[in-house]
Amino acid sequence: ARFVGAGLLAEMAQFFVETRGVLAGIREQAADLAALLREPRVGFVIVASPEPVAISEALMFHDRLTAARLSIAGFVVNRMHADVTSPPSREALAALLAGRAECAPFAPYELVRAAAAFCASTEEMRDAALTDGLEVARLDAAVGASATIVNVPFLDHDVHDVAGLAELGRFLVG
Questions:
Q1: How far is Cα 59 from Cα 53, in angstroms, rounded to an integer?
Q2: What does pTM read for this prediction?
Q3: Is the pLDDT of residue 1 over 50?
Q4: Cα three-residue angle 143-47-65, rounded to 5 degrees
Q5: How many other CB atoms are found less than 10 A from the CB of residue 132?
């Protein structure tokens, strides 16, 4: 066993006496913050991508906030893929490409491959849009009319400045 000197014990006792007031202040601030977060003018906006795991996490967070009696102002589902129209068939698209002067240097099989790749890419985009829509429907079914859901499209650029934020604002508030 190790013995501690009386001086160290006295210093520790003094430390605990002095920090009691600090801890009381922190508790008071935490109580004030909890009261503020429950005011009717305060609401949480939960932001998620349309990925299945992200929507599940958003729903879990929604449940926790609701259990804590905190108001949910709404959801923002960010990076939604837009639905695209079906392209013409691979053959029709290859014929259209073959009729363009800038495609003249390419062999017919290259145009068919390019058309096939374009069609496959378009189908992937349609699948992504469909999956995103299904996830938003799952979110909507879970929260119902209790919260607004706003969809923000997948942008072709990063938002990193005021102009980008203004662009997002148009989607968020109309």
A1: 10
A2: 0.73
A3: no
A4: 55
A5: 23
